[in-house]
Amino acid sequence: MSDTTHVAVLVGSLRADSVNRKVAEYLRDHAPEGVTLDVVEGIDALPFYNEDIDTGSAPEAAERVRDAVAQADGLLLVTPEYNGTMPAVLNNAIDWLSRPYGQGAITGKPVAAIGVTPTPYGGVWSHEHALKSVTIAGGVALEDVTVSQTSIDVDVLGTEEIIAKLQGAVDAIAAFQPVAVAS
Q1: What is the CATH number of domain 5-175?
Q2: 97-105 — which CB contacts under 8 Å span 24+ positions?
């Protein structure tokens, strides 16, 4: 058994200069001892989820993303908000990760949602929707560690208080202990 907690990270923004990608990379590069964060690449290559193409073997891009998340101990969603909800690319990735139903790559894993947007609310709706979706997909949403951070007039990665909140989400995933079910 490994003493290292592996956390898969999905970034909901595809922009090369995305502040959310910078947050994900910062957290990866400053992960606490005993924790490894892996930013999962390739969610932009996922076809829109369609059960007709998810029979037998899924498309290669879907298999790669599923494998990366299945091998992780937890999942961190780092995402902005588009039009009051999560970006379509993240929603689609969650759809792929939710299958086969009840046995998807997210099942039983702790999931936290964080992110930065240039709005006063910091992406709160995106994070709520993403956590609702992963809960339905079988993940364990860590709602009390959600960080919805505005980037208006704030240097997100230059403010210790904000960095501490963002790192707190990683700490919560690493500390997660599943609830034992009485038999």
Answers
A1: 3.40.50.360
A2: 97/65, 97/66, 97/69, 97/137, 98/133, 98/136, 98/137, 98/138, 99/49, 99/51, 99/54, 102/138, 104/66, 104/137, 104/138, 105/65, 105/66, 105/67, 105/69, 105/70
pLDDT tens column, 164-177: 999 999 999 999 98
CA distance 38 to 19: 17
**Whole-prediction pTM:** 0.95
Q: How far is CA 165 from CA 141, 145, 172, in A?
A: 17, 8, 11
From 50, 35, 44, select the one nearest 11 (Cα to Cα): 44
pLDDT for 19-48, tens place per residue? Answer: 999 999 999 999 999 999 999 999 999 999
- What one-letter code names the amino acid at 132? K
* Domain boundaries of the chain, sorted by first residue: 5-175
Of 58, 26, 19, 23, nearest to 42 (Cα)? 58
Residue 53's SS3 state is helix
What is d(CA 39, CA 24) in angstroms, rounded to the nearest whole number? 7
Backbone angles phi, psi at 28, to 5 degrees: -60, -45
